[in-house]
Amino acid sequence: MTDSMILTDVSDIAARYPEWITADGRPGYSGYIVAADHLLEFCRMVRDDLDYDLLSMVAGVDYITENMMEVVYYVYKTTGGGALVFKVQTPRDNPVVPSIFPIYPGAELQEREIYDLFGINFEGHPDLRRIFLWEGFAGHPMRKDWKEPYYEEELKPFKSRWPQGHVYRAEDELTPLKDNVQFPAGFDPYDWEAEGEQMLYAQLRKLQNAGDEELKTDRMIVNLGPQHPSTHGVFRMAALIEGEQVVELKPVVGYLHRNHEKIGERNTWQQNMPFTDRLDYISSISNNFGYVLAVEKLMNVKPPERAEYLRVLFAELTRLSNHLMAVGFLLNDLGAYFTPALYGLEERELILDIFEIVTGSRMMCNYMRFGGVVRDLPEGSYEKIRDLAFDRLPRKIDDIDAYLTGNEIVRVRCEGIGVLTAEEAIKYSLTGPNLRASGVPYDIRRADPYSIYDRFDFDVVVRYHGDVYDRYLVRLEEMRQSIRIIQQALKAIPEGPIMTGKSAYQVRVPAGEAYGRVEGPKGELGFYVISNGKGNPYRYHVRAPSFINLHGLAPMSRGGKIADVVVNLGALDIVLGEIDR
Amino acid sequence: MNGLGIIRGLGVTFKHFFQTYLEDLRAGKGRYFTEEGVQARSRADQKGLFTVQYPEEKLPVPEEFRYNPFLVYDEGPNGEQNLRCTSCGICAKACPPQCIWIVRSDDPVTGRPVPVPAEFYIDIDICMNCGSCAEFCPFDAIKMDHEYEIASYDRIAHHIYDKAKLSKSAQYYATIRPTNAAREDAERAAKEAAKAAKAAERPVRKIGPENAN
């Protein structure tokens, strides 16, 4: 290695290549702007020389007034620390950016998402197809000049609601296939050929003819889903199989797509809060947490001490309820029909009872506000949490452990199945329990602490085989660690206010960008927001852990049996509300 | 791999199975179809059968439980319903899915807005039960209901709630949310008292001809 190769931080690179790296000087922004033709070179340097090995988030932004589109990348080190942010700008009329897939394969689905929603072309992407929408969908919805069929106004609150709010339902006036559906120019729904499907199958057929010549085997494409009890929702896997073995597999998503991000950009800042509940609907408080962290960074407010404790307390209860379900339903996927799942659900119900008492809803909690939480613990709820955390849950988790961990059938079905090495897991941007099961002790609560997690004593759970069994063990042990955190929080929680200032339905958010991320139950859950100083977010992007963890599904399943695909998916622990957004 | 793990696991299911019968024997008839029984089954020290047999049995809803919004009215001396709503529109602006529609009433003579809603609609199909309207209402006029069995046969005819359907009395509110109602009443009373005290302190202004009526 020559002297010139030793780089300690990115400003060295920026100083060395001033012609194609510039610091992002816009007020409230950070990071570097890299010239598009040097992007791959830059990424290689960042990954290999600076050790930013984990690509966390890729987001597109449409700056319509500057006639420019931007792709934003956040990369982290798996050894911990803050982000390196870099951006690429491209003209709006012909947006082309080189794909960073060769360096960070974890960009594959995220680049497809940006291609679909923004229409930015990624040169060199191996499989650039629309991901959420179909080919009969007109335009790219995340562009700022795109308007939906029931378009009413650019931003909420809509003027038609008050003071002359005469109620009407738009769908009663507009009939189907007349005004409420937009098709691209020249598209006729009646002689539509499913081009997207053909492209998908073409990708798989590339490998189809490479079968065993001697045995004259035939390779076959099998669709698992979208309606299938093992897919945890409407999710499809197109698998190329040879006999019982999976040769290649492609996840197909978008059946539940509602364009959460566009809705989020129409909403005001506060209105987004209940919408975040609906992303990963079984761990809604974590979603609230990520979003408030991002917006609080921009607003520069800090919640009071008691609110911080309440946030941690509820985020950990959410993690418990999520993992109870993940473990239970993994066993369902293994064929242990519902007994383990219901044992998990039983404990989860008791946690949801607490959510209901405190937040008012079992699942759509809508608990956090910018600068605090919405409600203090009502009478009797502290005791309920205490009884669960100190008595019942530790006992019940030991029960589940005794019930499942040693079970020979579980072990035979899980050990050595769906193996991902640490390098692969990092390469495919996996986070959360899936990454830690592959031997990478990366937990954002430790690696880049947020809120008050630096005060708690807990272990980062890590296992080293990277198979389904280890993913199960990581979740089981993480529940115990969550209980430890809850116990400490319950002992240390101070009295005091739960809000800084007063919660308002319209907040002032200074212009700038911010990325707030939490260690969600499923992995790194991040919210990337841009404010232009007005009442609504200019850009609102969700880094959904379930979605990005899907990169791991094909490498886990390749070479395995088709029956194990279901188990691999169960071990990834996905929620379609978050994948499709 | 000798099958001991399976047997040990089956021990756990056997314990669950056995406990249900033991608890039934211990608790006797009161375990099912009684309020105490339902509550006992959802406590942290619960053992045995966990499920609640809806609709014969129902879990009690906690005070903070939120379902659909309703408008609170105070009953006047002659039984008239005085809605607390002033049609200020804050709930309609705060509502995330924009399901609240308000028509403000105007004084027919002066044309100035009158603090009473002429019409108030909530499209209950769109409402996402988030509670923002109740949270940000400055007049304690819109609150979240506990009534959750609202299925109906006709979406078009029944799912846009109007002012009459939304109005519920302050007494009803106080029965479903006693602590909240008591706290808010005390806060409002304190505010009124402060206002009255301030008004008493203020020097008496000369009443101009346009204000005398």
Give a quick rundown of the structure:
Chain A is an alpha+beta fold. Chain A has 20 helices and 15 strands. Chain A has a 5-stranded mixed beta sheet with strand order 1-2-5-4-3. In chain A, strands 8-9-10 form a 3-stranded antiparallel beta sheet.
Task: Enumerate the spans of chain A where pLDDT stays under 50 for 5 or more consecutive residues.
Answer: none
Number of domains of chain A: 2
Major sheet characteristics of chain A? 5 strands, mixed
CATH class of the largest domain in chain A: Mainly Alpha
Per DSSP, the total helix count of chain A is 20
What is the global morphology of chain B?
Answer: elongated
User: Within the CATH hierarchy, at the fold level, what is the topology of the largest domain in chain B?
Assistant: Alpha-Beta Plaits
Taken as a percent bin, the fraction of beta residues of chain B is 15-25%
Largest interface: A-B, 60 and 52 residues
End-to-end separation of chain A: 45 Å
Structural class of chain A: alpha+beta
Write down the Rg of chain A. Answer: 24 Å
Distance between the termini of chain B: 96 Å
